[in-house]
Design a protein that fits this description.
- By secondary structure, the chain is of the alpha/beta class.
- It has 2 domains: 231 residues, Rossmann fold, CATH 3.40.50; 252 residues, Aldolase class I (TIM Barrel), CATH 3.20.20.
- Helices cover 40% and strands 18% of the residues.
- It is built from 17 helices and 18 strands.
- It has an 8-stranded parallel barrel, surrounded by 6 helices.
- A hairpin with a 5-residue loop joins β1 and β2.
- α1 packs across α2 and α6 packs antiparallel against α7.
- The chain binds 5-bromo-uridine-5'-monophosphate.
- The site of 5-bromo-uridine-5'-monophosphate has 15 residues, from β18 and α16.
């Protein structure tokens, strides 16, 4: 695949030597290589790509040294010599490969330079998958089984490399090796090895410190501080969802019955089965303040819905009897109850909000909604409440993207929220969102609110799409509120939603029938 001539051997670039001569020349040029590496290290220090002080790392630990190799894009000569040195150092002893792929974003320009100068095809991993069209993780031309080498700038725990590794493997590429510019020596090599990936680095943090000391750029005290930090701070892999948890099957073309096999949650499997048996993916949202009205409506439409969504905190005449009756209706008509509580506090408080107070939500709601803003503690809080009650058949939907106009769910927030959902997929049954690309796993259920018979909006920011639109955009269950509760003919309207949503789902799973 690669050219037989060494194009990237910078000192002899113009000669373009055959490899056998290259290897003889290698020992002579070793000194020059080391000199160039040392100059690069000094240069990186000069341009502030490497700083000393007290820095909070992505993984939440403080560090006396910080790398910000993103700045190299402003120094093309540094970027060029760094890329060439990395390639020269690793090139001759790599496993065979057909493509290279830089870990987004800092390693992208490095990989691009190597790709152009060594004439190796490159692939790009999308950090956020497209919100429209096909869910493509990797851009570029490749065949299943092609081999790919990963390129990275700085490695701490190795989690960013593993995310790229997972996506490349998900798309059918074979990946055995990664090359990196700097190894911070904090467990990256070991973490990657435990997932079957080799890693080689152009330089280690220790080498960098020794060079800067030799060149008079740092004092012995700083070197000792960094060495001490490395020896004491090994960083484990955090929040990494391994490949086996991401099914290669596309949920949009799978039946609910098949997907019941893919979930780890008892209640998600139950919901999938109810949908398939009753041929309905309609969730009715009853935002009424009167308990009798709610029970009456639930008994009228119970046969046509898979899920009943309520807001218990708006009921004016709440009582234990109301809950007893509601649970009885759910049993009689075979639907699940979703309390749209949108928990959003720290784990300790959420645990109490879920199981205590007048409502004792965990005792009757099969499912609840949760904002992931507080981080994983919120899931642990809910689970802790259930452990005390020894409840097994409960779950939650994570709110990743809201239907309201101007919502603040940024792309980064959504990516992190989906990751949280996948890490806790024993308890998280699905994701509340508007677009199919946010639900990567067939075991997770996409719940989409903001549905009416026609596209439109209300006066307070709610935005509506039609049943066909939301199902095509990935909705497994569509939430309809006022589109039904304010209709003249409630039963007729419920039936119309049921039919249109179900037909759209059937068309989605078998487009040619
Ligand atoms: P509507 O009457 O169909 O607009 O009611 C929608 C319901 O869905 C309402 O209970 C909201 O609280 C709920 N909802 C929503 O509309 N949009 C969202 O993004 C989320 C929930 Br999350």
């Amino acid at each position: 695949m690669l050219s037989k001539l060494c194009k990237l051997c910078a000192p002899v670039q113009l000669l373009r030597l055959p490899y056998y001569l290259h290897s003889k020349l290698q020992s002579i040029t070793m000194d020059s290589f080391n000199q160039r590496l040392k100059s690069l290290i000094v240069k990186l220090h000069e341009i502030n790509a490497l700083k000393f002080g007290n820095f909070k790392m992505k993984v939440g630990i403080n560090s006396p040294v910080y790398f910000d190799l993103r700045v190299i894009v402003s120094y093309p000569k540094v970027m060029g010599s760094l890329s060439r040195l990395l390639w020269e150092f690793s090139n001759s002893s790599l496993d065979p490969f057909d493509h290279i792929c830089g870990v987004p974003y800092t390693a992208l320009p490095i990989a691009s330079i190597i790709s152009v100068e060594a004439d190796v095809p490159m692939l790009i991993r999308r950090k956020e998958t497209k919100d429209y069209g096909t869910r493509k993780l990797i851009e570029g031309k490749f065949e299943e089984g092609d081999r790919c080498l990963i390129i990275e700038d700085v490695v701490t725990s190795g989690s960013s490399i593993l995310e790229t590794f997972r996506d490349l493997k998900t798309e059918g590429l074979s990946v055995t090796e990664a090359i990196v510019v700097v190894d911070r020596e904090q467990g990256g090599i070991q973490n990657l090895a435990s997932h079957g990936l080799k890693m080689r680095s152009l330089c280690t943090l220790t080498q960098i410190m020794n060079t800067l000391l030799e060149k008079g750029k740092v004092d012995q005290n700083t070197v000792d501080q960094v060495k001490n930090y490395i020896s004491l701070t090994q960083i484990p892999l955090k929040d990494y969802v391994p490949l086996k948890e991401v099914s290669k099957r596309n949920r949009l073309s799978m039946s609910f019955m098949d997907r019941a096999q893919e979930t780890k949650s008892l209640v998600a499997a139950k919901l999938f089965r109810i949908m398939a048996e009753k041929r309905t993916n309609l969730c009715l949202s009853m935002d009424t303040t009167n308990s009798m009205e709610l029970l009456e409506l639930a008994s009228k439409v119970g046969a046509h819905i898979c899920l009943l969504k309520i807001h218990i905190d708006i009921i004016k005449d709440f009582s234990k009897d109301f809950i007893t009756n509601l649970v009885a209706l759910a049993k009689e008509y075979n639907f699940l109850i979703l309390e749209d509580r949108k928990f959003a506090d720290i784990g300790h408080v959420v645990k109490l909000q879920y199981s205590q107070g007048v409502h004792e939500i965990s005792s009757w709601a099969d499912l609840v909604t949760v904002h992931p803003i507080p981080g994983p503690g919120i899931i642990s809080g809910l689970k802790a409440a259930l452990e005390e009650l020894s409840q097994q058949d409960r779950g939650c939907f994570i709110v990743v993207e809201m239907s309201s106009q101007g919502n603040l769910n940024s792309a980064d927030y959504k990516t992190a929220a989906v990751k949280l959902a996948m890490t806790h997929s024993d308890f998280v049954v699905g994701i509340v969102c508007q677009s199919s690309s946010l639900v990567p796993d067939p075991g997770l259920i996409q719940l989409t609110p903001g549905v009416k018979l026609d596209k439109g909006s209300d006066t307070l920011g709610q935005q509506y799409n039609s049943p066909e639109h939301v199902v095509l955009n990935g909705a497994d269950v569509a939430v309809v509120g006022r589109g039904i509760t304010e209709a003249q003919d409630i039963i007729g309207t419920v039936k119309e939603f049921q039919t249109r949503l179900w037909e759209a789902y059937e068309k989605r799973i078998s487009p040619n029938e």
